[in-house]
Structure formats: structure tokens, C-alpha cells
Automatic annotation (TrEMBL):
Native source species: Streptomyces coeruleorubidus
Region (Disordered): 187-212
Alphabetical UniProt keywords: Receptor
InterPro entries xrefs: SEFIR_dom, Toll_tir_struct_dom_sf
PROSITE patterns: SEFIR
Gene3D superfamilies per UniProt: 3.40.50.11530
Domain annotation SEFIR: ranges: 213-354
Record protein name field: Toll/interleukin-1 receptor domain-containing protein
Length: 361
């Protein structure tokens, strides 16, 4: 039985977000089809592992970005599906094959001869067009309307693509194929299967590659915004974990079962190499004890720990780091933390990660 669709993504891409998008797309396609859907993920840099899947799938979903176009493995997988598309007689072959669904993962200019991932709404200024799925996840969250609108439209494209799926092929029948990307790979050929991964495509570093990973405790407030801020903090935590950083976050602990929260906060605050304070309106109110009684006591407790350290440790600002999403900023820094570096995320994320790793090494 043919696979309904595969999701092709770059080896250097954010694997956690790609996997979440893939699962959400399966769910959305399942709702539309009214049946169980068979799907697989094809990560670049896997050598010939993906070839049987690409040769069999009805629809090829590509998470397009600059790192995708730079990935030889993705170029090889694209070439296999392109070969299948050209098995359809020219008179029946659409110029924009519905069975190849191009997702704007991150806005990027495609290589010559490769089509641009289209916008969904027709408006080049909407979130999907300007940020791509990855940008929406990072900035608006996995629960945002923009994210789910995009997933639903992409699911509709997958369903339409299944109506025009190209002929299946066996791996043994594939000829030598030209790779459409990355740049300079046009003369390379996709030919016999080989057990080795594609050389030159670095695998993403996994957290387990580091014997001593830095530990970060994230202190933040649950804003009254329908969990938008909470979701963005959770996405940030996943991004840090992808970079090999251990993160202590309440939502992760909550999934493990009941907690004694005061003990949990105190334990992980003390164990962490760094405390990342994510400033926001509610955080400032609660940290400064200006919130109504009984509301946001967790932030108030953490803020008291931070204030005690601030008073006792001269270079406290090297462990207690301040972060903010663009919509908040300096105006929401608690008074006792004012005057030190404020990292705006995700603009300053590389600098934040570099600092954490340099100080913990």
C-alpha cells in the first residue's frame, strides 16, 4: 500500500518542530480524508534510506528553506520524486504538479529551476508568507490561529495532490538522476544505493553528544492571553534543548505528574547554571508584588530567589539572564533587574546560546 505522503526536511533543520508539524499535518489530512493516513518523515543526509519511501509516496511535502536547498540529501530525494513526475505523459502533466507540495518553512530564494514555495492566502504580507511555518511557531506559537490555518491549507493541498499522484517506481528501476540542488551539485548523480550517509551534510548535534550540558531554569509568567506567551516560552525551551541545553520548565514538569511546586522551583533554581527570566507585563507585576493576592505566586517566589541572589552576588547578571519577545521589551523588566543586557528573541538567540555555552564549558 502506497504511503499517503512524506515530509522531506533538511538535516540541519529544527527536528522537533519539523516532527510536530508532520504530526499535525497527519492529523489534519486524516480529518479531511476520514480514514487513517500513512505518512513518513524523510530527513536529509540519510544516504539512500529515504529512497524507497520517496519512490512509493503519493505526495512529496518539502519543508523549503535555505538549509533545505543546501542539503544534498534533500536534493537527491527531490530528484527521485521529480523523476516520477516526468513519467506522466507531457499532455497530462501540469506545470505545477499538485503531488509536490512546497511548504514555506522559512522564506528563501530557491535555486534556479526549482519553483518557489507559494503563499497560501495570496497575501504576501500575512504570517505564513513573511515568516514561514518555522517563524510562526517561534513567534506566534503552535496554538496560534496562523499556524493552524496554514496546516489546514497545506493538508488540503496534500489531499488534492493525492488525486494526481505520479506512478510508483521501484528503487532498482531508478536511472542515474541529476540533482537540482545544492548549488554545484548539478553534475552529481543519484544512482546505486549506498549504505553510507551523504558526505558533506553535517548531522545536527544532539543533546546527548555533550557530556556536560548547561542547565537553564526558565522563570516566566502565565499571561492571560490564551496561552500564547506560554506556548512561545515552551517553543523557546525546545529550541534550547535542540542546541544541547538542558531546560527546567514548569510545563515539562507538569506532564510528569503532580509536583510540590515550591520545592520544584527551589531545587531547579539552585541546580541551574543559568536562570533565564522572560519578562512580560504579568511577570513584572508579580515579581514586584503588585499583583492581586493569590495570583501568580510562583513568579513572586522565583523573583524572591532572584532578588536574594542579586543582593548577595556581585556578578549576578552572569547567571541571571533576561530575555524578551519583541512585543514586550525593556518596559517590563522588574526594577531590581534593570540595567543589564536584555536578549530579544529570536533576534538575539544566537548570542544568548553562545554565552550560555561559553560560560558553562
Amino acid at each position: 500500500m502506497a504511503i499517503d505522503f512524506i515530509t522531506s526536511f533538511a538535516a540541519e533543520d529544527h527536528g522537533t518542530y519539523a516532527e510536530r508539524f508532520h504530526r499535525d499535518l497527519i492529523e489534519a489530512v486524516t480529518r479531511r480524508k476520514g480514514r487513517t493516513v500513512s505518512a513518513a518523515m524523510c530527513r536529509g543526509g540519510q544516504g539512500d534510506t529515504n529512497r524507497p519511501l520517496v519512490a512509493d509516496a503519493q505526495v512529496f511535502v518539502a519543508l523549503c528553506s535555505q538549509v533545505y536547498y543546501d542539503d544534498r540529501g534533500c536534493g537527491a530525494d527531490w530528484a527521485v520524486f521529480e523523476h516520477r513526475l516526468h513519467l506522466v505523459p507531457p499532455q497530462f502533466r501540469p506545470s505545477d504538479p499538485p503531488a509536490r507540495v512546497l511548504v514555506r518553512w522559512q522564506p528563501a530564494k530557491p535555486p534556479s529551476g526549482v519553483p518557489l514555495a507559494p503563499v497560501l492566502s495570496g497575501e504576501i504580507t500575512d504570517s505564513y508568507a513573511s515568516k514561514g511555518i518555522y517563524g510562526i511557531i517561534c513567534q506566534e506559537g503552535l496554538r496560534s490561529q496562523a499556524y493552524w490555518d496554514a496546516v489546514d491549507e497545506i493538508a488540503a493541498a496534500v489531499c488534492a495532490g493525492q488525486e494526481c499522484s505520479p506512478p510508483e517506481v521501484s528503487v532498482g528501476e531508478l536511472p542515474a538522476l541529476s540533482m537540482p540542488f545544492p548549488r554545484g551539485a548539478g553534475d552529481a548523480r543519484v544512482c546505486r544505493p549506498s549504505p553510507a550517509a551523504q558526505p558533506g551534510v553535517p548531522r545536527p548535534r544532539k543533546p546527548t553528544d555533550d557530556a556536560e550540558r548547561p542547565r537553564v531554569f526558565i522563570s516566566y509568567a502565565h499571561e492571560e492571553d490564551g496561552d500564547v506567551h506560554k506556548g512561545k516560552v515552551a517553543a523557546l525551551a525546545e529550541r534550547l534543548r535542540e542546541e544541547g541545553i538542558d531546560v527546567f520548565l514548569d510545563t515539562s514538569a507538569h506532564r510528569k505528574g503532580p509536583q510540590h511546586w515550591a520545592r520544584w522551583m527551589h531545587k531547579h533554581y539552585k541546580e541551574a547554571d543559568f536562570v533565564l527570566v522572560m519578562v512580560s507585563p504579568a511577570y513584572k507585576r508579580r515579581a514586584e508584588h503588585e499583583e492581586e493576592p493569590g495570583k501568580g505566586d510562583g513568579v513572586a517566589y522565583e523573583a524572591d530567589l532572584i532578588l536574594s541572589e542579586r543582593m548577595a552576588v556581585r556578578r549576578w547578571y552572569e547567571r541571571i539572564l533576561l530575555g524578551s519577545f519583541p512585543e514586550h521589551g525593556k518596559a517590563y523588566v522588574p526594577f531590581f533587574l534593570d540595567g543589564v543586557t536584555l536578549y530579544t528573541l529570536y533576534q538575539d538567540l544566537p548570542e544568548l546560546i553562545d554565552f550560555i555555552k561559553s560560560k558553562s564549558s
